[in-house]
Amino acid sequence: MKLASLKEGRDGRLVVVSKDLSRAVDAAEIAATMQAALDRWEDAAPRLERLAEALENGAVESFAFRPEDCAAPLPRAYQWLDGSAYVNHVELVRKARGATMPESFWSDPLMYQGGSDSFLGPCDPILLADESWGLDLEAEVAVVTDDVAQGVDPRDAGDRIRLAMLVNDVTLRALVQNELAKGFGFMQSKPSSSFSPVAVTLGELGERWKETKLHLPLLSYVNGELLGRPDAGVDMAFDFARLIAHAARTRSLSAGTIIGSGTVSNRAPDCSPGRPVSEGGIGYSCLAERNAVEKLLHGAVRSGFLKFGDRIRVEMRDDDGRSIFGAIEQTVAPAPETCHENQPACVQRARK
Amino acid sequence: MKLASLKEGRDGRLVVVSKDLSRAVDAAEIAATMQAALDRWEDAAPRLERLAEALENGAVESFAFRPEDCAAPLPRAYQWLDGSAYVNHVELVRKARGATMPESFWSDPLMYQGGSDSFLGPCDPILLADESWGLDLEAEVAVVTDDVAQGVDPRDAGDRIRLAMLVNDVTLRALVQNELAKGFGFMQSKPSSSFSPVAVTLGELGERWKETKLHLPLLSYVNGELLGRPDAGVDMAFDFARLIAHAARTRSLSAGTIIGSGTVSNRAPDCSPGRPVSEGGIGYSCLAERNAVEKLLHGAVRSGFLKFGDRIRVEMRDDDGRSIFGAIEQTVAPAPETCHENQPACVQRARK
Known about the structure:
Two copies of one chain form a homodimer. By secondary structure, the first copy, chain A, is of the alpha+beta class. The first copy, chain A, contains eight helices and 20 strands. Chain A has helices spanning 34-39, 41-56, 87-96, 154-157, 173-181, 240-247, 287-298, 343-351, and strands at 2-6, 13-17, 23-26, 63-64, 80-83, 111-114, 126-128, 135-136, 139-145, 161-168, 171-172, 194-195, 199-200, 209-210, 213-214, 218-222, 225-228, 258-260, 311-316, 328-334. In chain A, strand 1 and strand 2 form a beta hairpin. The longest helix of chain A is centred in the first third of the chain and has 16 residues, at 41-56. Residues 338-352 of chain A have low confidence and may be disordered. Chains A, B: Residues 81-332 form the Fumarylacetoacetase-like C-terminal domain.
């Protein structure tokens, strides 16, 4: 089944969405919010599945589903941990800023604790105070877990996954270097991430979900042009089960924990960094990689990062070309000078 | 007023606690949980204040308040950001592991994004799978904010503080070095933190809350012996307003965000690292500092880190010697081998 949170209050209103993303039905009688459903998944999931079936059969009253009405599936979450499972990406981005990558990165997963108190909806603008901060997208796959026990075995960790979705892990490249040099990880350089309109159960992914990886191309566009279409199932050095076990090594994880794959990235067949789409390659899921490859191929960065007014789009299509999660579609906009109280209010103001 | 969350479900049950911490009254009619109160503070706070007044006057039915019935004031939170405002601590701990500290640390606050999905209650044991991980306490002051606008001015940021409390930022020292070397910050080396039984409004702190710092000694004990009593208002290089503004530079913060001070630490009057309590000094709020000073004074670490069965206590007393927040009182216990589903369940099992 497919689930979404329509914008309403701080936690949204849970709806079940049809497989073709055209219709939705209110799920409030089962669980008012996505987090409430995850808090008691064993009870809520079968009831939500029945509602989804009724929706497909036209056996329940429904309304038109519009991604622009959506908050992130979890508008705010208790935990957002982002891995860097495509080690190819890490190596390239480091190379671009003149840093080397330790060999251990191929065996010991990189993961950071991200801010999760106010995610952006799929169509919310990215409000940026300063263009010189080097705004970049990072297109990724993410899963949502149930409760996970401390010290969970990687062989059991995959069973704790409840939902999958897409994420744009918004990154301010110009702030990364100074922040990472301080040793305490990302904070200012990773403002609020945005998520796909719907989160789906693994059953919706069919045979494309295999060995806790999602085996489909992830499509990223900037201003309507394809930036990349790397396969999320290829070159993922650590599968989601491994990432969850890494996160839970010294502590339990609570239901609603979001685990990101890291920027999806594939090597070229000859193991060199993949070429840009414009040169016949499969391209990238972030601009930092494109810039890095431009520098390696041409000696200089040609394209740079996102500017005010730029549009991004992130999506994944099934074997029949149908959008699975709906698209993340965002515009970069200047942060209003008088940004009051909380992000949703600011977002509303900026969109008017 | 003083607020606490009694253990119940995932988010606890909000109660108002008497100033002397002896009695409590249910606040469910105003807000079912602490987060619910913070989500609409302007409406909830005056009503909670009236209930607190009725409790002090004996005008409302109350029950005995027991810290051991408490979850953390926010049993799970949407954000936990921990600063390192006592730069003295950072310098000492780095020195102990042979690392130097950049001069910029005195002007650019260090802060990391911590896990906030399952905090420990004040009397919950710390469940440790492996003694060799080097378990340490870090006694700190923390504040809880309302919504904070992106780019907030440090001069306005202090007005967004709603509550103050104490925190034990549990740290696994043996895992820190490898994790920080990876550049993505703490994760495995910082399992769930624990918090004081009650969180208090700034009005409860009177003149001791000044310039967004709390000017009182923070008392830490290990196995009944005083480890340290540094003043939280002294040597705090960045006040809470500054820490909040740092956190909100590139993104808004949502209500219920917890901001930690970092390990409270004072220099000796001659600016050398403070001496242990046993040698007439004011001591420390973590064992890493004690170990570092032992190494500097005696050439070797004598005491080490926490072992199974060790007891810690963290508390702060007002000018009349009365506990303000109640005490964090925890025992170190081996993590059960079959730790199921979620932390609260494991904790229950471990305590039986």
